[in-house]
Give the backbone structure.
Amino acid sequence: MKFDLLATDLQTKARAGIITTDHGTIETPIFMPVGTKGSVKGVHMRELEQDVKAQIILGNTYHLYLKPGPDFMKEAGGLHQFIGWDKPILTDSGGYQVYSLAEHRKITEEGVWFKSYIDGSKHFFSPENVMDIQRAIGGDIIMAFDECTPYPCDYQYAKQSMEMTHRWLKRCCTRFDETAGLYNYTQSLFPIVQGSTYNDLRVQSAETIASFDRDANAIGGLSVGEPAEEMYAMTDLVCSILPKDKPRYLMGVGTPVNLLECIALGIDMFDCVMPTRNGRNGMLFTTEGTINIKNQKWEKDFSPLDKNLGAYVGIHHSKAYLRHLIMNDEILGGQIASLQNLTFYLWLMQEARQHIVDGDFREWKEKMVKKVGCRL
Amino acid sequence: MKFDLLATDLQTKARAGIITTDHGTIETPIFMPVGTKGSVKGVHMRELEQDVKAQIILGNTYHLYLKPGPDFMKEAGGLHQFIGWDKPILTDSGGYQVYSLAEHRKITEEGVWFKSYIDGSKHFFSPENVMDIQRAIGGDIIMAFDECTPYPCDYQYAKQSMEMTHRWLKRCCTRFDETAGLYNYTQSLFPIVQGSTYNDLRVQSAETIASFDRDANAIGGLSVGEPAEEMYAMTDLVCSILPKDKPRYLMGVGTPVNLLECIALGIDMFDCVMPTRNGRNGMLFTTEGTINIKNQKWEKDFSPLDKNLGAYVGIHHSKAYLRHLIMNDEILGGQIASLQNLTFYLWLMQEARQHIVDGDFREWKEKMVKKVGCRL
C-alpha cells in the first residue's frame, strides 16, 4: 500500500491524498460504505460503483467469521470474489462487535470469549486468530484486534485497556508479519489508537501506535456516545501526533458534519452505517440538509429528493414517493434512501477533496457545515 | 388502445401481437411485473426498464385506494408521475384483494363492504366507485369490478356470482363511459370472465363479456387453487370464444410453465407476484430450471446464478453468494432474486414471441416446458 499526499490545506489540517492498493486507488478524504455481511444493505454492487462511486467498502469480521466463516471464505477465493467487488475492501477486527453485540463476553489478556448473536455458541477471538480470519476474508486493509472502551469509561479501566490493546497490537503485527496473504494481492494492517477521552492516554496511545510504523493509523473508541466536541478534541490531539505521511482513519464516524469537521482536523478515511441504516428509517441526507421523510410535511411534496446531487434516485423520485414507500415498509424505500445517502456521502468527500486541492476548503466547509447540518 | 395481431402459430393457438397505448407499445405475449403499492418490491424503476425490460407494470387498486388514496393520487398527477414510470400501467379492480385480504367483507348486489387490512376501518367498493378510483390512479388499462370465486366453489354460488359480475360489468361500463380520464391520456376498461371451473358457466361468461366489445378481455377466477389441468381447460375453452382480434389477459398466472402452456392456448397478457415474492423467499427461475437457493446443495456453488440470461445479476453473482444473502436475511438477496426472476420472465415472453413469429413455437415450447419446469 502506498499513500501520496497531494495537497494540504493551509487554513485547516485537511489533506487530499491518494492510496494505492492492489485493487486500485482510493482518493482521500474518503468515506467507506459498510457491507457488514458482504453486502451494503439494499445497494447493488453495480450501484456502488456507478452511482455511489464508492472506492472502497467495509466488511465486518465478526459477522463474516460467524457466517459464512473463514474456511468458507478460503473456498470462495476471498471476499472480493465471493461478493463480486473488485475494488479495495477493508475489514474491521471484530473487536467492536464483540463488545457491542455479544453478551457474556469475557475479556482476558489472551483474548475474548463471546457468544454468537446467532445461536449462542461460544467463540474466542485473539490477536492471532483475528489476523488469520482477516487473512482468510482477504481485505486489502485489515484492522488490529483492540478493545473499544465504552463511554463514559473510568480512567483506570481506560488506561489498562489501552495498554492491553498495545500488547495485542504487538501480537497482531507478529502474526501478520509471519503470515502471507492467501490470494494474489497484498494486505495492510492498520493499528488503532485507543485511550477513551483522556488526553494523556490518547497522546500515549498515538505515540505507541505510530511507533509501529505500519502503512496507516486508525483512531478507535470515538463516536461511542461522547459529545461531538470531545470527539473533535481527541481527533485533533491524536492527529497532531500521528505521522503526516500516512493515512488516518477515524473509525465509525459519522454524520456529514462530523466528517467535514474531522477532515479539517486531518482525517483521511471514514466509515459509518448511518447513510444506510438511518436511510432505511427515513433519514435522508441531501445537498440542502437533512430530511426526516416520515414527517407529515413531506406527504405531498412532489419535488425531487435532491435535484442538485445528480444522482438517479434524487432526480427521478419525489419526497412524497419516498415517504409513501418508507411509511408502507416497501423495500424500495430503503433502497432509494440508501442510494441517495451513500451518493451524498461520497459526493461530499469528493467536494471536500477538490476544495482542499483548490485551497478554499475552510470557507467551503463552514458553508457546508451550516447547510448539511440543517434539518429541513 | 390498439391491438395488432402480427402472427398466429399454426400448430398451437399462440399469438404474437402489439398493443399501443398512450404510454407506448406492449409486445405480446407479455408478462406484467406487479407493483402492488406503487413499487415492484425490491426493484428500482431504472432496473425495470433497463434490465427487466418491462413494458407494462401493475398497480393494485385495493392497496392504492387505502394508501395513499384516490384524492392523493389526483394531487400527485396520477400513478405514473407519482412513482416515476412513464410506460403503461394496468390497475386491477381491487376485487381480488377484497376477497383474499379483507376480513368481514359483505357482498351485496350494490357492492362490497370490507375492513381495511391496515387499520380495520370500514370501506365500500361498488362498480361505480371502483371506476372512479381507477380514474384517479390513472392506469392505462383498468379492470372491471368483479367477484372472484374461490376454489372449489359450488355450482349455484358460481352461477349467481358470475351473473352478478355481469351486472356489475354493465354498471362499470356505464360509469366508465360517462366519465373521462383525469390526465392527458386514454384509459381502457377490460371486462373479466368468471364462472369458476364449470364449462357451461365459462362459456356463458365468455360470450357475455365478449358482447360488451371492450378493448380487450380478461379471464379471472383461475389460479386460485385448482389443478393446473383445470386452469388450462378453462383457459382453452374461454379463448375459443373470446374474439381473436383483441388481447386476452389471464389474471394472476403463474409459473413459467403455466405461462408457456397458456400462451399456447391463446393468452397474450399475464401478471403474477411469483417472480418477486418467491424470489425473496429464495426461489430462483433460471434458463436451466428452478432453484431453491436455500438448499444446502448451493452452499458452495460458486458458479453464476444464470450465465445464459445475459442479466447483470445472473452473470455477476454466484449461487453461493445469493444463498448467503437470503439465508442471512440481507435485503440485497431479495433484490438480486427479484431482478433475476423478472428478467427471466420477460425474456421468456420475448423468446416465445420470437418463436411464434418464426413459426417454431410448439417445438420450442415443449423443450422449454421441460427445462423451466425442472427443479435443479
